[in-house]
Design a protein that fits this description.
The complex is a heterodimer of chains A (332) and B (326). Chain A is of the alpha/beta class and 332 residues long. Chain A contains twelve helices and 13 strands. Chain A has two domains: 234 residues, P-loop containing nucleotide triphosphate hydrolases (Rossmann fold, 3-Layer(aba) Sandwich), CATH 3.40.50.300; 71 residues, no CATH class. Chain A is globular, with a radius of gyration of 21 Å. Classes of the chains: A alpha/beta (332), B alpha/beta (326).
Chain lengths: 332, 326
């Protein structure tokens, strides 16, 4: 990865997304900044409710506008435009064409009353100038690309006739049919069996290499991250708490949360068998009652009064970023 | 560990569960879903037996049959020497107290209109649990045992997070003081940090109460960590039975190897192509004549298509059902 010369395809700066609720306004994503380069896979990890999905939906502007808003100063820079301020028409040109998204649950994200072919054709009809026959050909070609068996027959079938793995392939085919610059995959394999997950990850990797697509992979499965991501961003309670290369994050985590998260996965091998797993005590703080200081403070095993009084800033440290008063250094 | 010990807590023989599929104007039985097909195994007292497989392989159905939430089509389940298959409601009643289940989704398995106290009291009262310090004290003690504060007793399920709800699900299962538990994907819906908390809790409770567990999961990492032995299921049949401490070294069946190979390893320096199986699982309506895995197996031979292998231990090795590897 040559991140130094290449221009980022997407740059998010100070993105803050708020929701209006009955109990007041909550900031679900708080001042998130990152860059995404062509041909790389950026993993976004964290526990439920940490703001992973809200970040991706904010980029795509898919959150309901009457319930949510982006704070002033939020910038999503893509192709010279700030998507944060773009009109709905401009967004429609971008969505599905330049930036595509795959969702976790392929059954609820496909329309049950239309055939697979119709749904692929819709995107192609909107974003390309191909005629009907050419669009059908392209749809079949896309299904073949995602290794769907018998694409000519499958194109006439409805989502309920397909298995979970095949539905996710249709989603990927739809996402890729306009050859987007960015693919946002929100837990694309969480609902699938490991053998099917392996197929889908294999497929996404192949497509990344062929089309140089940048992938934003949102997942809570650290095994998947270790296997397919180049860089990782760890989120906690709406904040980015650490980011860096996948090897740095796994081998030399700086933030106590990252370290604890990696240690809490069951390891394979007889040595670990039947031992108690290291855990992170407590739960994620409610967004309604965020502490003044570090958001991880009450679950953290290190740190002192400073952590309660003042929230650490996200600081650059050897080509990576950490939000901690007491980063762990190189000690493993 | 030899599977044939006389003092097994649970002895399962040739267990079969077929669900009828009805249709047409007369609502006749048209075909059967072959969810579990002739499964046999033993569970020793104090053991944790894992059951792993892909969705639709029959692992949850097997778990529900074991504690007779379902009535198996045929076969035998002997629990502490007593036959459960074919037993009626009244005969099963004394056993219900001794065998309980933890479900995957604790939200849908708890009554939203009942406080935790009411839910646990109901279980304890129904099964006539003797509580020397009163039933409220008993319920609070249970709640503390699963790692919640006693105040949690008067809250409703929606007031808890997923991990806390699963703890309540565990408290509910333990309220009638069982000695055998079936845990059906108890940590699959939880985040990794919470998953570790719940697994540790189960491990502690197992030791404290002397529980025997059948642990159903699709996650081989969790099974390997938590269980003593594992049954690998594919399309309603056990294809291999393994000791978890030597899982990676001793796994022989091509399906088990594929499952192990498809599991992403948590090390960015150890990247390897994940094992990719082609094809999908065959339909459980009409099982193939030969080996159920033949259509996806990388080692398939002519015999696999025509004859079904049986689960057997060859030369003292662990039980395996495959024609090609032995």
């Amino acid at each position: 990865m040559t991140a130094t010369q290449v221009q980022p395809v997407l740059e998010v700066r100070h993105l803050s997304t708020c929701f209006k609720t009955d109990r007041g306004v909550v900031t679900a994503v708080d001042d998130v900044s990152f860059k995404l380069y062509p041909g790389e896979t950026l993993g976004i990890v964290g526990e439920s409710g940490c703001g992973k999905t809200v970040t991706s939906k904010s980029i795509m502007r898919l959150l309901p506008e009457h319930l949510s808003f982006q704070k002033e100063g939020s910038e999503v820079l893509f192709g010279g435009n700030n998507l944060s301020l773009a009109s709905e028409d401009e967004m429609r040109e971008v969505r599905g064409d330049r930036i595509a998204m795959i969702f976790q649950e392929p059954m609820t994200s496909l329309n049950p009353v239309f055939t697979v072919g119709w749904q692929l054709d819709e995107a192609l009809g909107y974003h390309t100038t191909l005629d009907k026959a050419a669009r059908r050909e392209r749809a079949i070609e896309m299904l073949r690309l995602v290794e769907m068996p018998e694409p000519e027959r499958r194109i006439g079938e409805y989502p309920h006739q397909l298995s979970g793995g095949m539905r996710q392939r249709v989603m990927i085919a739809m996402a890729l049919c306009c050859e987007p610059d960015i693919l946002i995959a929100d837990e694309p394999t969480t609902a699938l069996d490991v053998t099917i997950q392996a197929q889908i990850l294999d497929l996404m990797n192949g497509l990344k290499q062929r089309l140089n697509t940048a992938i934003m992979l949102i997942t809570h499965d650290l095994g998947v991250v270790a296997q397919v991501c180049d860089r990782v961003m760890v989120m906690y309670a709406g904040r980015v708490i650490e980011s860096g290369t996948v090897r740095d994050i796994f081998h030399r985590p700086q933030h106590p949360y990252t370290k604890a998260l990696i240690e809490s996965i069951p390891k394979s091998g007889a040595r670990e068998h039947g031992k108690r797993l290291p855990t992170i005590d407590g739960i994620v703080p409610s967004l309604f009652e965020l502490p003044h200081g570090c958001r991880f403070e009450d679950r953290c095993t290190i740190g002192d009064k400073k952590c309660i009084d003042r929230e650490p800033a996200l600081e650059a440290l050897d080509g990576r970023e950490v939000r901690c008063h007491f980063p762990l250094g190189d000690a493993r | 560990m030899s599977a044939q010990q006389a003092n097994a807590l649970l002895e399962v023989r040739d267990l079969t569960m077929h669900f009828p599929v009805r249709g047409g104007i007369l609502n006749r039985v048209r075909s059967h879903v072959h969810a579990v097909n002739g499964v046999s195994f033993d569970v020793q007292p104090g053991e944790v037996l894992g059951v792993v497989g892909e969705s639709g392989c029959g692992k949850s159905t097997l778990g529900k049959c074991l504690i007779r939430l379902l009535a198996p089509t045929s076969g035998s389940i002997r629990y502490a020497g007593e036959e459960l298959v074919g037993a009626g409601h009244n005969e099963l009643m004394p056993h219900r107290k001794r065998m309980q289940m933890i479900f995957q989704d604790p939200y849908s398995s708890l009554n939203p209109r009942m406080t935790v106290r009411a839910a646990l009291r109901e279980v304890a009262a129904f099964h006539d649990i003797q509580a020397p310090f009163g039933i409220d004290a008993y319920v609070e003690e249970l709640i503390v045992k699963v790692g919640l504060r006693p105040e949690a007793a008067d809250k409703y399920p929606h007031e808890f997070s997923g991990g806390q709800r699963q703890r309540i699900g565990i408290a509910r299962a333990l309220a009638c003081q069982p000695d055998f538990l079936v845990a059906d994907e108890p940590v699959s819906a939880l985040d990794v940090s919470i998953q570790a908390q719940v697994l540790n809790l189960l491990m502690d409770l197992k030791d404290e109460f002397g529980l025997t567990l059948v642990f159903v999961s699709h996650d081989l990492k969790v099974i390997e960590h938590f269980c003593d032995r594992v049954l690998v299921m594919y399309l309603g049949s056990v294809v291999e039975e393994l000791d978890c401490t030597t899982l990676h070294e001793s796994a022989r069946h091509p399906y088990t190897r594929a499952l192990l190979g498809a599991n992403p390893i948590n090390d960015p320096d150890d990247r390897r192509p994940l094992t990719v199986l082609s094809g999908d699982v065959p339909s459980p309506f009409d099982l193939p004549k030969g080996c159920a895995f033949a259509g996806r197996c990388p080692l398939v031979e002519a015999r696999c298509e025509s004859e079904r292998p049986v689960l057997e231990s060859k030369n003292g090795a662990h039980p395996l059902s495959c024609w090609v590897v032995d």
